[in-house]
Amino acid sequence: MSRHPGIKLFSALLCLAAGAGFVYLITAALQLEIPSAANYTARAVAETGSINVPTAILMDYRGFDTLGEASVIFTSVAVVLVILGAPQFSQPDRIMTLLSRRAIAYLLPLFFLFPVYVILNGHLSPGGGFQGGVSLAVLVILLHVVFGNDFTAQRLPMRLLGITEYLSALAFASVGLVGIALGSTYLANAAAGLPLGRPGELLSAGIIPLLNVIVGCKVAAGLSSIFYALAGHTAEDTAEDTATESRQ
């Protein structure tokens, strides 16, 4: 059934108003002068060893905020699993053709290298644990779509993803305490006396590369678990609908 023209017009005007509001806010924000921003830009490399300033801010200056952000995915996974329960794939797999599976199998190493590069070089270039973890989760979804439920579940069982999620959360919180144990602040680097190495090299920036790896594992496991739960729940509903239609 087609929508009323008045509703379409109202929706279009609402979208235009929202877009204009966002443009105004962004323009106004760009004109603001924030003294602390210049301080972060000038001191970030010397105090953290990371030439990627956003990563230095996330993994050092505002460590408690980052810990809260990392716990959001942990909480989301817990809520989704409590509501939906364990995934139940009751229908047979709908795998892709042999040609598609062979092509993806040859390309998988390349698909895997990109998120690994993003995670390991998060303190050197744009990227980091969050972005790389999302890319790894997309790779898990690709395996599920191309090779089916059984193939993916045998190689990446839900239990393994859950353990990875929990251990990564514990590791992030524990590594952050090193700065406090050394007499400084949470997730501190130079302020805690940690060696920063030479800025621009892979082994530099103190504990930031380790934190990127931990966050990458955590985000990948968390988002993959959410996908498993949603995909299994959808498959269960589809099976119930099919059974109901067959009885009718």
From TrEMBL:
Subcellular location: Cell membrane
The organism's place on the tree of life at top rank: Bacteria
Lineage summary: Bacteria, Pseudomonadati, Spirochaetota, Spirochaetia, Spirochaetales
A Pfam entry, by short name: MnhB
Main location: membrane
Presence of keyword Transmembrane: yes
Segments passing through the bilayer: 70-91, 103-124, 130-147, 167-187, 207-230
Topology with respect to the bilayer: Multi-pass membrane protein
Residue ranges of domain MrpA C-terminal/MbhE in the record: 13-80
Organism the protein comes from: Spirochaeta africana (strain ATCC 700263 / DSM 8902 / Z-7692)
Protein name: Multisubunit Na+/H+ antiporter, MnhB subunit
Key words of the record: Cell membrane, Membrane, Transmembrane, Transmembrane helix
InterPro entries: CPA3_antiporter_subunitB (IPR050622), MnhB (IPR007182), MrpA_C/MbhE (IPR046806)
